[in-house]
Amino acid sequence: MITTDKAALPVAADRGDFDRRRFLDALLTVGFVSTAAAIAYPVGRYLVPPVSGEPATESVVAARVKALRPNSAAIFKFGSKPGIVVRTADGDVRAFSAVCSHLDCTVQFKSDTSQLWCACHNGTYDLGGNVVSGPPPRGLEKFVVNLRGEGDDAEIVVSRA
To answer: Which residue range forms the structural domain that includes residue 34?
Structure first.
């Protein structure tokens, strides 16, 4: 019969404070914290909008009167967003933001119905910028229109209200 005496077994060397369990705990903790940070950072960037670095545009020259025939329209750039200037059949000139209030698509002018139309979901607006049909929740932003100059060479100057 073999007996084992505990005194006869070799004693493990004193490793100090470092052992495998503590090393694995530290390694797993660093891994979990790194993964959490890698997930939280993009989510935080998505939820907090960036500060807009674009200067506020107050007015732009949209077109010349001679380029805009009655019952037609032209798209122009107003800051970083599109705008639309419309000359009605009566000759009145009106301007709106060309960004649909539903999903930010660009609206177009349909001369056959004299309406502004969003091709994304078939939303329509009247020539006052009000919603006629479709999913847009509110009307288009209206701009102030002034003419600079005289006759057909006059410039159509559009500014915020």
So the answer is: 16-47
Q: Token pair 């009605």 is at which residue?
A: 88
CA-nearest of 140, 136, 132, 109 to 120 is: 136
Number of domains making up the chain: 2
E strand segments, the chain? 59-64, 72-78, 81-87, 93-97, 107-110, 115-118, 123-125, 131-133, 142-148, 155-160
Residue with structure tokens 């939820």? 47
Q: pLDDT of 98-138, one tens digit each?
A: 999 888 889 999 988 889 999 888 899 999 989 999 888 99
How many distinct helices (H) and strands (E) make up the chain?
A: 1, 10
DSSP 134: S
Is the model's pTM score more than 0.70? no
Place of tokens 């970083």: 80
**Which residue is it, tokens 């009247």?**
126
Non-local CB neighbours of 15 within 8 Å, separated by 6+ positions = none
CATH number, domain containing residue 68? 2.102.10.10
Helix, strand, or coil here: 158?
strand
Q: Report yes or no: 161 and 142 within 8 Å, Cβ to Cβ.
A: yes
